[in-house]
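[Solved] Which block belongs to which protein?

Original post:
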Amino acid sequence: GSSGSEDEERPGTTAEAEAAEAAAAAQRREERLRRFRELHLKRNEARKLNHQEVVEEDKRLKLPANWEAKKARLEWELKVEEKKKECAARGEDYERVKLLEISAEDAERWERKKKRKNPDLGFSDYAAAQLRQYQRLTRQIKPDLEQYEKLKEQYGEALYPTSNSLLHGTHVPTKEGVDRMVADLEKQIEKREKYSRRRPYNDDADIDYINERNAKFNKKAERFYGKYTAEIKQNLERGTAV
């Protein structure tokens, strides 16, 4: 009787085990599918991020070498302009407010750096002179955001020219820009007049020096004492000096 009851229980137990195994297999399959979908989404996201990074790197490579420094300087200049406007709105002097925010160590360091810096190193070659002129002119440029917004509304996409854009004769300078250019040219003319051209060497002049330094000394002595020693010099040259 007991063996018969065991035989009756075995088919039910086997069916339950098979059902449990099938449910476990389905659960494992669903888990694998879920992980596969997650990996697929991660792969698509990584592909998208890689494409964006490639595009950004291509943009960075096409920018000038000193673009980061220029960008940082422009951002700093914009902050300075905003600070000046805030001080003007409050009726405060921007220079005084700026000095209050500078520590004594920074002020001393900037003063030492200013003393070491020589703004005019003299003429070495035309390339260096052109570079100094370019740097001086670019330092004078101040961003005018209001004028920029007006130009952007006026020209639209034409404000950002490409290689196919034709802009010749379309730009009209402002009166302030023309006045600034005229003032700069007048400063250049005034500064140019202060320089003296090096005189060429005169082969017919008397040689009364042993080197260039001695020649400069003799010229200074002649300028101050020449009228008093002219007769002595003539006597020495004639050989009639006593």
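(Second protein starts here: sequence line, then its structure tokens.)
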Amino acid sequence: LLKQKANSSKECPSTCQTHTKKKHPLKAGKSQEVPAINGNGNVVKAKSTNKMDSGSAKDSPPSAKPKSKKVAMDKNVNGTKSDGKSCKEKKKNGNILKEKDDIKHKRRKAEEHAEQQPKEAEIWFDDVDPKDIEAAIGPEAAKIARRNLGLETGQSKQSVEQVLVKEKASEGLTRAVAMDCEMVGVGPKGEDSIVARVSIVNQFGKCIYDKYVKPTEEVTDYRTAVSGIRPENINTGEDFKTVQKEVADILNGRILVGHALRNDLKVLFLDHPQKKIRDTQRYKPFRQRVKNARPSLKLLCERLLNVQVQTSEHCSIQDAQAAMRLYTLEKKKWEAAVKNKSNNKNCK
């Protein structure tokens, strides 16, 4: 038996895999190369396919990550995305600061310019010629004075006309017409009045009649500052009787609109049915709104139409247009009130 054991140990080489495994067991987590023999009989080294070896691969970082870090570093070196963005932001912030400085500079210049110009509240002259104001104070002060008087530019006049006249409308006679007269003074002190000009407009503000009237008496006061009448206007004017008849024909059967119409009818020696008269001075709602028992046409236009009329010499066409516009502003209510008043009288 002892001889057989000795022989068996001699026959088994030290490289026997069975004895090797028993004497040197594999440690977990370590890969071992296992010799393999290919078809030609050569020994080829191969890694074992131990499952524990695959777990060790997890401990090592993936090969893709170092590459991505390198790409990121390259981008940073060549002008990375983050650096580029910060550059753009710096440039944008610089432009914003520059714009703010420009705005502040312009605002400061405007304030300095405004300080050098006269304030509108300081230009309070009512009866002073804008030319005199320009010579004494300067062009800006004269401009403010002209604006206050409604004489600033042709645009101001146009805006008044746009309010008072309906541009695309009929130029013929309408059911309601508005009339205004300009007068001159006669007698020792020019206190008595005669008609010098008659103007009539239709319901849309279109002028349908405008004539100067030759004086029937010697004129002692032309009242040019208010009436706008000059000797040459009426010396070549129409005969009074002719004007009187033409006006009477126009007014016949129509609603007559105007301001303080009693004075206009008086100088024309005409009468008109009271129920067909619409006097803007006597209309009670207007008087209540402006809180004035006898409001002027100028006041009514300023408060109710937001336009200025009669700022210098009066114009009978514009005054008639203003009265008509005030009437059309309240036409429905006005006519309803007249109708109710008439019905109440008939009931009594």
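Accepted answer:
You had them paired correctly. Confirming on the second one: The mean pLDDT is 75.
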